[in-house]
Structure formats: structure tokens, C-alpha cells
Amino acid sequence: MRYKNVIGLFLFSSLFVAGFLINGNLGLYFNISGLLIVIGGTTAAALLSFKTEQLKIVYKVMKASYHRPVKEETEIINILIDLSIKSRIDGILSLQKEENETTILFLRRALSCLVDGYGTEQIRDILNTETYFFKLRRDDLQRVLRSIADFFPAFGIIGSVVGLIAMLGGIGDTAVILKAVPIALTSTLYGLIFANFFFLPFAANLRERTNHELLLQKIITEGVIAINSEMNPVILKTRLESFLTPSARDHDLVSYRKIRERFNIQVQEKNTIQEA
């Protein structure tokens, strides 16, 4: 995670916990029975709904999303510009060395197609297919996370029902009622916290990372196709920078003076005319 995100997470999580402490002892919100019902029930439902291998993939992807940063668009564009210049100087086969050095799997795949001499349409078709199924896989992982997030509140309600049943069964016995009330209340609380504080944010983070990676893949696709067609590196740079926001581009816009000179635009000076 980025440094600012970690600071923000720590700060506002502290405020979240402080909200519990203001109204009483934090220990009042801990109930082992309700916690077992919510976690155990949700885990069982997840195992019944999804394959173990799929849950492992979700864990690995989520772990990587918080520990392994994604390259920025400008970095990818600079790599492609460097490759374009090298291919024009040393020939297209010189990219074989770059293919083994880069850590971006999609870029390695694209360079592999380039080095093997595939045509432009073949490269576009292969890379678009890679992008399509990458998005499908990520959408499937998001679906898993959102499904688990839906399980938590449901089992929180189940825990509350268990607490109410125990409370009704102990009518007339104050000790039984006092033991049952925390189960009925905290189970719902646990379900809401796990769903909204963890798994829904996990799914949102994965969606944001996926959108970023899809943009990088689009940049790589257009860049590799341009390199294959021997596009001028300056033109390629201008084309790829179209994917960036104006503030992220490292060149200034053309001045109005140059525009006037290029199109022979005559500028009429404003004269103040005083009428009698």
C-alpha cells in the first residue's frame, strides 16, 4: 500500500475504534459465541460456494494488490519509447533481450509476439484476447469477494436469532438473559463490520487495480503494434501520451503564436475608435 494510504488507514481506523470506546469498555463488544457463528458460518458457506483453489487465488491476488505496486502509465510509455528507438537502430530482433528482463507478464507476452514476427492484426487479436480473459478472471474474483461480503451480514442475523432464542428460553432467569443478549447484538455487529470494513473494500481495491492494469495493457497493445509498424518514436510518444491526463504529460502545449504562424492567421489589433 502507498504511504499516504497507510497513514490514512491508521488514522481513521483509530477514529472508528474510538467511537466504540466513547460509549463504554471495548470488552463489551467482544463475544466469542457470536464471532464463531459469523466466521464459521461464512467460511462454511464460502467453501460450499467456491472451489478451494479459487479461494486461494483470491487470497494471492489480494495479497499482491496490497504488497506489489503496479507500474505507472508514464513508466510503461517510457519503456515502449525506449524499445521503439532500439528496434529502429538495432532491428526488431534486439527486443529479445528486453523480453527476458521485463517483469510485466503482459508486456513480455506482447514482446514475444513482436520478436516472433507476428503480423499487426495477429498481435492485436492475441493481446485483445489476453485482455478480455484477464478482465473476466478479475471480475470473477470480485464476485467471490462480494459474495463473501453478503454472507457476513446474513450469518450475523443468524447469530442474533440464536441469541434471541436463548434469551426467550431463559425467561425468568436473569443470568441466562444477560448471557444471551450480547450474542444477539454483537453477531449482527460482527457481520456488518466484516462485510463493510474488509471484504467490500477488498473488492473495490481489486476493481481499481484491475482498471489500472487494463489501461496499461491497452497502452502496451497500441505501443507494440506501433513498434511493429515502425512508427516514428516521436509520433509514438505523442500517441501514447493520449492515454494520460493532461497534468501527467511531460510536454507543453503548442503556443498560440506557432498556431498562428502555421495556419497564417492574421491577428487584428483592437483600436479604440471614438465617435464624435
From TrEMBL:
What membrane topology was assigned to this protein in its record? Multi-pass membrane protein
What is the designated name of this protein? Chemotaxis protein MotA
The family database entries (PANTHER family) matched by this protein are listed as:
CHEMOTAXIS PROTEIN MOTA
A Gene Ontology cellular-component term = plasma membrane
Has the keyword Cell membrane been applied to this entry?
Answer: yes
Chain ranges of the MotA/TolQ/ExbB proton channel domain: 105-214
Where is this protein localized, as stated in its record? Cell membrane; Membrane
Residue ranges crossing the lipid bilayer per the database entry: 5-22, 28-50, 151-171, 183-204
Species name: Desulfofustis glycolicus DSM 9705
Q: Which portions of this protein are annotated as coiled-coil regions? A: none
Q: Which UniProt keywords apply?
A: Cell membrane, Membrane, Protein transport, Transmembrane, Transmembrane helix, Transport
Tell me, what is an example of a GO biological process annotation in this record? bacterial-type flagellum-dependent swarming motility
* Similarity comment: Belongs to the exbB/tolQ family.
Instruction: Name the domain of life this protein comes from.
Output: Bacteria
